[in-house]
Amino acid sequence: MAYCNPCNRTFPHWEAYNQHIQNSPAHRSYEVHECQLCDRDFYSEQSRHQHYSSSHRSRYCVDCKRVFMNENNLMQHLHSRTHVGASIQCPWCKVGFATASGVTIHLESGTCTASGLNRQKINHMVHKLDRNNVITRPMITLPGYANVETIATERAWNGQAYECYLCTRQFTSLNGLNNHIKSPVHEQNLYRCPNLSCRREYKLLSGLVQHVESESCGVMRFGMVQSQARSGIQNMVGRMIAG
């Protein structure tokens, strides 16, 4: 049931109300609310909201009244802290995260001193678990796992900036260049989707976890990934390997 306050009229459904608003001369001076996804106009925010809710649910968050560019962006929003909170805790420092990929990024970054983990140690752990290379690519040596640290010096200065010897990218500071060298940008892809019809590759475990969370390949449901991650990163990885 919809009600037009200025006209003191009641309508059996929102479609009839919208038609009244659009066709009645009494409402011509009202502000026009344009649908961002089709060519329809509405003379109230509530009418447009009802339109989005009924016709564009694949790209519209009803609770937040937000329109997204595509269904995947909406899905990421629905899986964000805004809707799911921070229900997954780091097992070591107890910081809360919205998703399994979030806590994986946290551990890969090496900033969780309580865990002592970083991306190299996580890569090594996963490679040992994945003996049949279900989610990892067979490699003689793991990327960046050797106890050798590559550090750029002042000799990287080319007269204008500090230049990476691998990709010639330039940085304004030596620290910026060294952060670039320490990142996985020049490493080989270690991880791959376990779905044989997909097999997309990633440098980081967090990249693979984000891919699985998207449900684009049907490897695991988003909720299952989060459930497994609450029991620990090894448990989540074991579930992906087991299929």
UniProtKB/TrEMBL annotation:
Residues 59-88, 162-186 form the C2H2-type domain. It comes from the Eukaryota. One of its GO terms (cellular component) is nucleus. One of its GO terms (molecular function) is zinc ion binding. This is C2H2-type domain-containing protein. It comes from Hyaloscypha bicolor E. Keywords: Metal-binding, Repeat, Zinc, Zinc-finger. InterPro entries: Znf_C2H2_sf (IPR036236), Znf_C2H2_type (IPR013087). Pfam families: zf-met.
